[in-house]
Amino acid sequence: MREFQRCTRCVMDTTDSKITFDENGVCDHCRNFDKNIAPYWKPNENRYDELEKLSAKIREAGKNSEYDCILGLSGGADSSYLAYIAKEIMHLRILAFVVDTGWNLNVAVENIEKIVKGLDLDMYTEVINWKEMADLQLSFFKAGISSQDFPQDHAIFAALYNYAVKHKIKYVLTGSNSATEFIRPPVEWLYMNDLKMAKDIHRKFGKRELKTFPMCGMLTYKIYYRYFKGMRRAYPLDYVVYNKTEAEDLLHERYGWTRYENKHYENVFTRFFEGYYLPHKFGFDTRKNVASNQILAGTLSREDALKRLEQPPYDPDQMLQDKEYVAKKLGITTEEFDAIIEGPNHVPADYKNSMWMIKLGVAVSKMLGMENRNLRI
User: Are 359 and 377 in contact (CB under 8 A)?
Assistant: First the structure.
């Protein structure tokens, strides 16, 4: 067993099994930031000239369509601020795309309504077949792997991409950004999109055919949709100063938007998964990479991050309520759910997977300069 060690600069530690440290105890995530991100990142500079060029390109691509672009709106800070930038700064004709996976909390629904109304956006909601969603999610729990949020994540982006291509909307705006995502959760914490693995898990543990569940494999959206259908992804938040706290204040003051306790806690399933399942079953705490991003961005001190990590991810009483709620929605008893959670731990390699393709994609992206984060596969 490796001796526990935490980075002396950020708060990443040896729960990331591949982390390395230099003689000063600084981790490879921080060193990668210094070498490959910091020299090119301009966190205090609004690059409006470049943003306007991107806006013009998007408007040109959408001139014969009802909308210039589409963006996924979850009610979280990133997507809500993205909607603000796209409408008020970029002056685009936007379709806000909302995916109802059956788990959103009222605060998320209310935030979506406030942003859509406040910015006067058109909105489309795709409702995922609940019985199929529940069957796939229960299958993932029975599989005993860490990546329990795959069914939701995949449904959301697959539905978005499929809709964009079907309706010939060329640009998909995403809230992914350098300011909050220097350090991605290690792959052993949250395994990447792997439709082959998902199908194998469902084949082994599922009971219901996935007739309508949105699917979009890596080859489909990275190659077919891009090079044959012309779909492009754009990252507007990388062109503006993005201080998350200030962005949240702006959203609250202008639209009445409400802040969440932690990143992704607008969704009860994700709150339970990240707040209890991952740390309890695997010892993984995604607050570490979120806080480390903020430390490197200069928006959070390491001392404050460590204090944050001393507290439980969320209220224990709320966790018990969430566990009962999740179990009931998935159609099992709390006792059955506990037995599944306490079952053997597994990894993606225990199932059919596309790891070789993911490794190749990451290697090519790094070689072409499309990816400069420290993604270790």
Answer: yes
